[in-house]
């Protein structure tokens, strides 16, 4: 009898959770807003809106493949661009949790063939963007204004034809070749003096994972993050020619306003490269409320949420924003906000978490002409104000 009672209770809880966000007038109003912002007949977005783990919205809008007129769904796999960085940070911190590295140590202890930076560059500083490392302009100035002046020590790689190397589109380096290039780059400022966003730093972190663990970043994260969290549709795409099931194809508009294919051929991972879908991000989001990773998961996730330094992200505007392991930590009128955006060829992403409300707002667009911030702002306003 007790077993039957328990089973009934579980079923009732499941039913309540399933229908807690059924189509109410408020939900219908959000649907209308999203449909007005993401045209049904153009490349679109997968949107996930969750409260306490329950789906308010979990669906696709617009098209996943414009050539074949295939509708977007919540099951489509998207390139996450810089939202990938929190997963890289998690991998590095798991290496530390496993006793294989010390976050306070100089990166050169673990990664071979780095230049003499002339100062200590700690792993923690690289994670927090305070190591003084540069960005893609150290490799190539393609796409920058003609009067752009590159940092001292920039490589300014050239393609075979002689024009500036086009990173991510048309020109090509293998992963190992790209790693060799990144290992030669100088610092652009003295470490731990200011916050400065560095994609190159996160590629160095991917190299760190590879050289310390003996696994690629893809293999390591699959073994120690994605499989334990049952994220079966998530991986770092490090193979330019592999087939990706349920891929959302990337698009942009040309100067005439017509859509064109916008797919990268850069499959170096670390600064980006993560591919995932809404359901797996729901599982990732749950990890912050009910942690599973690390030797002591509760302590591990608490430390993961601590800023890497006290250096502010935007001191010039007085914004109280800090950076914690691939996440921007701030406060707005809705409370504590944990967020990161991502933009790359054919990818436009906004991921926001409000821990106090256990509220998740995720917009994954494969159309770079869509204003993803406006969509996320609309969802926040709907949830907190309407």
Automatic annotation (TrEMBL):
InterPro entries named in the record: AmpC-like, Beta-lactam-related, Beta-lactam/transpept-like
Signal sequence bounds: 1-22
Stretches assigned to the Beta-lactamase-related domain: 42-357
Entries under Pfam families matching the protein: Beta-lactamase
The keyword Signal belongs to this UniProt entry's keyword annotation: yes
Presence of the UniProt keyword Ribonucleoprotein in the record: no
Keywords: Signal
Name of the protein this chain belongs to: Alkaline D-peptidase
